[in-house]
Amino acid sequence: MKRPPHGFTLVELLIVIAIIGMLIGLLLPAIQSAREAARRAMCQNHLHQLGIALHGFHSSFEHFPPGYSANEENYFYPHWSWSSYVLPYLEEGIVYNALGVESREFGNGAMLAPATAVTQRPMPVFVCPSDLGNVLNDQKDLHGKSNYRGVMGTIPQLITSYRIAMTENGVIYLNSNISTDNITDGSSQTLIVGECTLSGLNPSHNGAIWAGMHGSVSTSGPETTMYSDTMWFINSDPNWCINGIGLQAFGSNHPGGASFCFADGSIHFLRTEIDGTTLENLAARNDGMLVGDYD
Fold first, then answer.
1. Could you tell me where the DSSP H helices lie in 234-287?
2. pLDDT in tens, 122-179
3. How far apart are alpha carbons 171 and 66 in whole angstroms?
4. Which residues pair with 145 in a beta bridge?
5. How far is it, in rounded angstroms, from Cα 52 to Cα 45?
6. Domain boundary assignment for the chain
7. Which end is more exposed in the chain, N or C (fewer Cβ atoms within 10 Å of the end residue's Cβ)?
8. 84, 50 Cβ separation under 8 angstroms
9. In the structure, what pLDDT confidence band is assigned to residue 22 with cuts at 50, 70 and 90?
């Protein structure tokens, strides 16, 4: 007489479930790591495209684009920025023309440029896929988000003046017209654009926008100018180093650091714990200091 088939006992079933749970627990970090590696690679590709566009502009005008261009009387009003100037070199000539970069001011003379259907347009090349959330920057009047800022240099610009703003030691700042010849430290040793976050690891960061510098929050003084819409400084101060606690600090949601485009168009991932002096040497175009290992 055949015996009935022997089924799983409750203990055996629990053991199988536990093993499956352990395998899932082992696999999930690997899957998440692979996904983040893909997002980081895409982010670096965006920076690479921006680097090519910056050099396309340089080829046309013999200098890199300015952070934005203005005179002493209106430098805290809205202005088009490096990121709007390079749109034609990103095959975004239609957007460039729709903005009217060559024919009108950003915001049409308003103290603070209101968002429009064009400035709210999602621009994937300006967005890091690891920066989750809305494609509109809710801390900057809902203009389209950017995760990439120009590197002004190392000199703080929290409370500033027109003259101070024009004496930065980086590549992209107010009225800058820096050529590769002006980068005496070497374009392969000098930052030009880096990552910044709006949502993610540090919820206090305010991200950037791609359309331009959208003005001042009040008429009380130029210290309210929204430089961080398009550019910012970086140095060894804990507020302004990579992933610093400052609202406008460069940084990313990639574990361990952030990616930067150098003035020669190369892309490097800089660690959060990079030596502060080395970071400042990379941010300055002409300090004459040799830069050691930073990768």
1. 276-283
2. 999 999 999 988 899 999 999 999 999 999 999 998 877 888 899 999 999 999 999 9
3. 8
4. 209
5. 11
6. 44-283
7. N
8. no
9. confident
